[in-house]
Each structure stands twice: as structure tokens, then as C-alpha cells.
Write a structure and sequence with these properties.
By secondary structure, this protein is of the alpha/beta class. The chain is built from 21 helices and 31 strands. Strand 6 and strand 7 (119-120) form a beta hairpin. Helix 4 (67-80) runs antiparallel to helix 7, helix 4 (67-80) crosses helix 8 and helix 4 packs parallel to helix 10 (205-219).
């Protein structure tokens, strides 16, 4: 989230699209209710009439996988009706920047496309630079090469007729949504977007969010109270997991993963530290050397010295161009490339796209360790439906672990809010907290490397491991999460002084041996440590900031700066310098986030402490301006509509490029490689399908399916279908059916409902159905199996997140109730 949960109450217009918070984030919906109590307008756009839609003032239905067409139509509406916040767009975005004259877009392809490699050469996607190395600008926005003009040209094609034919949304409904949301282009009106997996789980997932970011920038909604682009994360700590490098392409604090071609630390930093010649650009990532060296010091302690590149050679690396995403890992596992697998706090036999392929892949392993609260489909894959245990070689170990309330530690929620929670009871039986399990594994692995050597023992033997009080024998018996939290924050080995810009007087801000109060004090000389730079300031000499429970709200807009701790530096709304004019005056005084009082900033922690007018507001990009045109993505600098991998129509109505041209294909249409088969426009699979969640179950149901009262509420797998489709197929409510795709099939109960309606797509009737993804064969006995047995192996080209929200199926009667 750019903003935070309770900030939703500040919005004038709330757009829910790609999510369903009333059911899937029900506690958060109180802030939507509070906004509506104050007069806010709620819009919901979803293929299904959800409980969020039932609360909305405006509801519009759209076919899954067509969000960019829908949003592209809104961008066109904004531009052709001059509904931009002009000063904001000109001064704070790259709308005025001039792009290389060779940049082009023709028939669904941007310049530089390599059809054979399914990738782009992005050479022409760059700014024109002046003699000083600063991007050229035209603040009149008239130059044909300026981004504003390119944006207008790109979205001029997204007219109401075409958007309606692609999305299935009636033109009147499109206009209702467009007119209501674009009211927020006025400086004293603010709109926010709430999205979740309904936007991300597509082959254009990143570009779905980019399209909305463009809208928010054009309307001047970024950095504002009640504004922003707000991701509703699916678990209470998934934001914290991402911050600490859950994903393959980053290391803690959103730094890039080193590649094997970066032989030295200097090589790595030279390639990954952005530069700027513009004196008004703060270019915050210029500090990357400080964050990387401090991370290496946290990893290897005294063993990391300047003479050995601070241990950089020991740090894990990927080969150049290597993709280690989820889909790739299981694809390689299916080919026998892995000996072992730790399934830690996950259930890929149900959660992974194309779950049948994943289950078969695990049969190639020699061993697997399942760390979880309960038995699940992953740990017991060897005795699942259709398997012969006698022919499966994989040895499976179950390590029972503690639930969240059986251990102490922090969680960081969607708001970037780090909150400390306490253990209520001890875990049962042999179950242990994850930290204890990791600690025991480390001790054993280190002992083996020390006694028996190995191919490369140094990365293990040189690790710093000070996560608890040491006993008389010098060992740590019980690791302590407070020690981990302190290392994540970091400390300094020497006194740190800061010089006052006016008086030139130096003040000691941190003494040797102290916990650091801010990442502003991290150094690149090896004198500071920090396990994750964005969390520096979370556990200081004043104590555990995440454990604070201050209830004061001095600004009156719900910032509550004394409640827990929010990264970065306790800033509650990021990009907040964009909420004020160059002079530091709030665009919206009644909901001021920050303001310049003539000598200092007031309100939230500002996005850069420099005086008003000294720096551009978007400090994390080297040009200092938010990007309407983003050259760093794999599939284009502007979002463009492409059809999902599997879709119900023969061609893309916007271009001859049907599928996102940059996605990685695992199989060929209609043929595929065994489990990777996919079919599009095949009469055997005429129905669009999307997976979703219900309130009563969580994720793949490993916890909730073992909870009798929740199973009583939602006992088994079902499929929702419209009355029209049910009539066409002769299916009655509650009847047993089979849902089939090119990859597998799932038994389900039919729920015949008015929540789905047929779409009119390209002059043909298209039906959509929906299924929850919480079920699996282990329990309850008649609960059914995973929806992901149906979904394809395909992912977004930037993130590789699977396309689980738009694929093709059929429904057949099974008979019986």
C-alpha cells in the first residue's frame, strides 16, 4: 500500500477492482464504511456481484482479464475531457519528458520487439537528454514526442464501443464509473483504489496496476490522504515476507538479487546504483551501497571486511538471465532437476497453478520436508487421488510448527505497519516456532560443514548467528525473536555525526554500539549493520517501536504515528511530498498530510526532509518524477490490452497480438507438453472461469479446513454459475457437477445464482463461472479438491505470478445431490 488501512476513510471516491474486501478483508471494510458515512461514493467493478458490490453505489461487471481495456477507456476519458490535475501532472510526473524519436507502437507491439525471443530491446524506450544529462522537457505538453502526447495517442483507440465489446461492460455503466471516479481530478477531491489478486493473477498483472497508477497520477491522487494505490495483501504478514525477500529477484529491502556476472561488490553496485545529473532529484537509491554493505555486515558480522569485499563472494547469486520463480522451479522439478524440497508454511499441491503438474513433480524428489501446522495435500501427495504410493520414491518428513499465537514476533500488514504480537500459549506436542526449527537446522548444517567440509563451506561457516543469549558453553539454546528484530534494524560500530547545513555544527546522533534510529545513518564503510534497511528505525535505543500502542492522532486524518511502526521511517503515506505544491502548501488543506511552516515540515514524516521546493517529490526514481511512461517493464512502457492465455474470442479486438507478447510459454496451444497443455477458443471449454476466496476459509484451507465450525459454514467445493447458463445446461441448484479444463477436473456442487450474468463479448454471448480455491482432498472427506487442478502454467512476464483469474473450463452434470 502507498497509504494505509484507516486512510481509506479519508477518500471521496473508492474504487474496488480486482478485489472483494467486504468478504476477503472484512475488518478493513470498516474504513470503507466510515468513508461512506462521511459521504464517499463506492464503486465496485467485478465479474461477479460480490458482497462488496452489494455495498456499492455503482456496480459494473466486466469479463475477467479485460481490466486494462476498462482502465484504458478511463484514461482516454480523462485525457479527451481534460480532467487532469494540470499543475500536478506537469510538475510531478514525467508527462513533459521527451522520449526517443525512434520509439514507436504499431499493432500491439512496442518498438524493439524480438519475436523469436519473445522479448523487447528497450533501447528506444528512453528519454531524450540535454547536454547536462538531464531529460528534456516540454511543459506545454505539445511536443509530439512528449509522454503526454504519446499517452494520448496510445489510448485514443480505447473508445467506449470497443471497450464495451472487449469487457462486456455496457457503455452506460462504463460512463457511470468514469464520470464518478474522475471527479477526483479536483485538488480538494481524492479517490483511492483497493485491489488484490483479481488484478495481479494475470499475464498482464503488473500492467493492470500500472494502468491504475497512471489514472491516479493524472488525477493527482498519489501522496494524498484518501488516495494512493492500495494492495490488499492476502495474509497478515505477506507484506513483511515480501519486504524480507520472499521473492526470487530481490534481497531484503527491495534491492536486486546479485547475478553471477557481478564478480565483485563494485561490479554489482556499479550496475545497480542509479545516477542522476539533476540537482533537484534526491535519487534515493544512490544510497544502495550503504544498504548493501550494511546487509553484508549483518549477514557475516566480523567476517565481512573491506579486504574481502564485505563477504560479497559468499552471498547467494543467480546466473545472468536466470529465472527462479515459482512456475520455473516446479517446471524444473517436474524434469527431475531437484533432489529435495522444503515446503515451509505452504501447500503447493493446492496453491500452485496447474496443481496436477506440481503433484507429479514432487514424485521426482528424493526427499521433501513439510513444515506446517497440520497434514496437508503437499505432505501427503504420495497417497493422493490417482497415486500409487508403492511407486513413489519421495521420503517425506513432517515438522510440526507453531501457529501465530503460539510464538512471539512481528507482522507487517498491507499498510506497511509492523506490529509486535505476543505468545498466548505454548505450541502443542513437538511443534516448535519457525525460528527454533531454523536455528536447529543451521546448527546441524554448520556442524556438518565444519567437520566434513564440502564444495563451498565458507558461506555457512562465515555466517553471523547471534540470535539469542549464549549459555556457559557458548551456544545459543533458544533463539530470541528480539535479537533477530534488532539485527534487522541494525547498529553502528562507531560514533555517527551529522552536520547542520546552516551552522556547520556537528552532532553525534548515534554512539558506537547503539541501535540506529534511521537508515539515514547507514554507512558503506562497514561500520554499520542492517538486515533490511527499510526497517532501520524499528528497534532503536528507545526500544521496540513495533510494540508501541500510542493512540494520539495529532493531524486528525488517522495517521496515529505512535501506534506500532511503519516503514520507511514511520512514514504513513509514501510519496507525501506530492500532496503539496512546490511552496509546501497542501493541495487539499482539510486533509493535509504534510505542510511546510516556513522552517520545517509538519504532519507525517516527509518523503525527504529537504525544504519545500528543493527536490522533486518522487524520490525513489532518478528523475524524481512519477512515471506515466515506465521503461523498466518487460512488456511495454504503457499498459496495453492483451487477451488471457485462454480466452473465449478468436482475436484481440485492439490488435493482432492476442496474448501478451513478452510472456514465457511452457507449451503450445492445443498441444503443450503434457501437463502444460492449454486451449483457447475450443468448443469443449467455452466458459471463462476465475478463482476466488470466501470469508470462512483462508488460503488453501490448511488451518480452516481442520476447524469444524468453519467447515460447517463452507463444507465443500462449489462452482457458481448464472441462472441463464444453468438453464442452458439443465443444471439445478445443489446438483453435483464436474468442472473441467485442458489440465484436469474437479467435482463440485452447483450454486445457481444471479451474481453472474452472461456477457456480450464481440457480438457473442460469453458465460463466466467462479470457484473458490480453498479446498483439497485431505480434509474434509467429501470437501472436493483444489481449483488449481484447472489453472494453466503461465505467468506475468515481470513477476511470473500465475494467471489464475482467467482461464477456460466446461461444466458437466454428474448427477445426484
Amino acid at each position: 500500500m502507498t497509504n494505509h488501512w484507516n486512510d481509506i476513510a479519508n477518500a471521496d471516491v473508492i474504487l474496488i477492482m480486482g478485489g472483494n474486501p467486504a468478504e476477503n478483508h472484512p475488518i478493513s471494510f470498516r474504513w470503507v464504511d466510515k468513508a461512506m458515512e462521511k459521504g464517499a461514493k463506492l464503486i465496485c467493478v467485478d465479474p461477479r456481484f460480490t458482497r462488496s458490490a452489494a455495498k456499492a453505489h455503482i456496480y459494473a461487471a466486466l469479463r475477467s482479464g479485460t481490466d486494462i481495456a476498462f482502465l484504458g477507456g478511463m484514461i482516454k476519458h480523462i485525457l479527451e475531457n481534460n480532467l487532469i490535475q494540470k499543475e500536478y501532472v506537469v510538475e510531478y510526473t514525467n508527462a513533459s519528458f521527451l522520449v526517443d524519436e525512434k520509439f514507436d507502437f504499431q499493432d500491439g507491439l512496442f518498438s524493439g520487439y524480438d519475436a523469436k525471443g519473445r522479448k523487447y530491446d528497450r533501447t528506444t524506450w528512453k528519454y531524450q537528454m540535454d547536454a547536462k544529462g538531464i531529460p528534456k522537457m516540454d511543459k506545454t505538453l505539445q511536443n509530439p514526442n512528449c509522454i503526454y502526447q504519446l499517452l494520448q495517442k496510445h489510448y485514443s483507440r480505447y473508445n467506449l464501443d470497443l471497450v464495451s465489446k472487449i469487457t462486456g461492460t455496457p457503455k452506460d455503466d462504463l460512463l457511470k464509473v468514469y464520470k464518478a471516479y474522475t471527479e477526483t481530478h479536483k485538488p480538494d477531491k481524492v479517490g483511492t483504489i483497493l485491489y488484490a489478486m483479481g488484478w495481479t493473477q494475470h499475464t498482464v498483472g503488473v500492467q493492470n496496476i500500472r494502468a491504475m497508477a497512471i489514472i491516479q497520477l493524472l488525477l493527482g491522487n498519489m501522496g494524498m490522504a484518501g488516495g494512493g494505490v492500495n494492495a490488499l495483501r492476502g495474509e497478515s504478514n505477506v507484506q513483511g515476507g515480501t519486504d524480507h525477500a520472499l521473492l526470487f529477484h530481490i534481497i531484503p529491502g527491495y534491492n536486486p538479487m546479485p547475478r553471477a556476472t557481478d564478480k565483485t561488490l563494485t561490479d554489482f553496485l556499479e550496475r545497480n546504483t542509479p545516477k542522476t545529473q539533476d540537482p533537484k532529484s534526491l535519487n534515493w537509491w544512490k544510497n544502495r551501497p550503504k544498504y548493501i554493505v550494511s546487509l553484508l555486515k549483518a549477514m557475516y558480522g566480523a567476517n565481512a571486511a573491506k579486504e574481502n569485499d564485505f563477504g560479497y563472494s559468499w552471498f547467494p547469486k543467480l546466473d545472468e538471465g536466470q529465472n527462479a520463480s515459482w512456475l520455473i522451479l516446479f517446471d524444473q522439478m517436474a524434469k527431475g532437476k531437484f533432489k529435495g524440497f522444503f515446503a515451509w508454511g505452504q501447500n503447493p499441491a493446492c496453491s500452485s497453478a496447474n496443481a496436477g503438474k506440481v503433484r507429479k513433480a514432487m514424485e521426482t524428489l528424493d526427499w521433501m520436508v513439510n513444515v506446517n501446522l497440520f497434514d496437508n495435500e503437499t505432505g501427503s501427495f504420495w497417497k493422493g487421488p490417482g497415486t500409487d504410493p508403492s511407486k513413489i520414491k519421495t521420503e517425506v518428513f513432517m515438522l510440526p510448527c507453531a501457529a501465530s499465537f503460539e510464538k512471539e514476533g512481528s507482522i507487517t500488514n498491507s499498510s506497511r505497519l509492523m506490529q509486535w504480537r505476543y505468545k498466548t500459549i505454548n505450541p502443542p506436542g513437538q511443534a516448535k516456532p519457525d525460528l527454533d526449527i531454523m536455528h536447529a537446522l543451521y546448527q546441524k548444517v554448520r556442524k556438518l560443514y565444519k567437520e566434513k567440509g564440502g564444495a563451498y563451506p565458507e558461506p555457512i561457516l562465515n555466517l553471523s548467528w547471534n540470535y539469542g543469549a549464549k549459555g556457559p558453553d557458548g551456544t545459543i539454546k533458544h533463539p530470541d525473536p528480539h535479537f533477530v528484530a534488532k539485527e534487522i534494524n541494525g547498529y553502528t560500530a562507531k560514533d555517527i555525526e551529522v552536520e547542520d547545513a546552516k551552522t556547520k555544527v556537528k552532532t553525534v546522533v548515534a554512539k558506537a554500539g547503539e541501535q540506529l534510529g534511521s537508515f539515514a545513518f547507514l554507512q558503506d564503510d562497514g561500520s554499520t549493520t542492517s538486515g533490511c534497511w527499510i526497517y532501520c528505525g524499528s528497534y532503536t535505543e528507545r526500544g521496540n517501536m513495533a510494540a508501541r500502542r500510542g493512540k494520539a492522532d495529532p493531524t486528525g486524518i488517522g495517521l496515529y504515528p505512535g501506534w506500532a511502526w511503519c516503514w520507511p521511517v514511520n512514514r504513513r503515506i509514501i510519496y507525501n511530498r506530492a500532496s503539496v505544491t512546490w511552496e509546501g502548501k497542501p493541495w487539499d488543506p482539510k486533509r493535509a498530510v504534510i505542510w511546510w511552516d516556513g522552517s520545517r515540515w509538519q504532519g507525517d514524516v516527509p518523503d525527504g526532509p529537504q525544504p519545500a521546493g528543493d527536490i522533486y517529490p518522487f524520490i525513489m526514481v532518478p528523475e524524481g518524477h512519477a512515471r506515466l511512461f515506465a521503461a523498466g517493464l518487460a512488456d511495454g512502457p504503457f499498459p496495453e490490452h492483451y487477451e488471457p492465455l485462454e480466452c473465449p474470442i478468436e482475436k484481440n479486438l485492439l490488435s493482432s497480438q492476442k496474448l501478451n507478447p513478452a510472456v514465457r510459454l511452457f507449451g503450445e496451444p492445443g498441444i503443450g507438453a503434457g501437463a502444460d497443455k492449454y486451449l483457447t477458443c475450443d468448443p469443449r471449454f467455452p466458459l471463462v472461469c476465475s478463482t476466488y476466496r470466501v470469508t470462512e476459509h483462508w488460503q488453501t484451507g490448511v488451518m480452516t479446513r481442520w476447524t469444524p465450525w468453519l467447515v460447517e459454514l463452507e463444507p465443500q467445493m462449489f462452482v457458481e454459475l448464472s441462472r441463464e447458463l444453468a438453464k442452458e445446461k439443465g443444471i439445478s441448484n445443489g446438483e453435483r457437477v464436474v468442472v473441467k479444463s485442458a489440465r484436469g477436473e474437479v467435482d463440485a456442487k452447483a450454486i445457481v445464482t444471479e451474481r453472474f450474468k452472461p456477457f456480450k463479448i464481440a457480438d457473442q454471448t460469453v458465460h463466466q463461472v467462479g470457484i473458490p480455491w480453498h479446498y483439497g482432498w485431505v480434509t474434509p472427506p467429501d470437501g472436493g479438491d483444489s481449483a488449481n487442478l484447472l489453472t494453466p502454467t503461465i505467468g506475468d512476464p515481470n513477476t511470473m505470478i500465475p494467471e489464475s483469474k482467467a482461464f477456460m473450463v466446461n461444466i458437466e452434470k454428474k448427477g445426484g445431490k
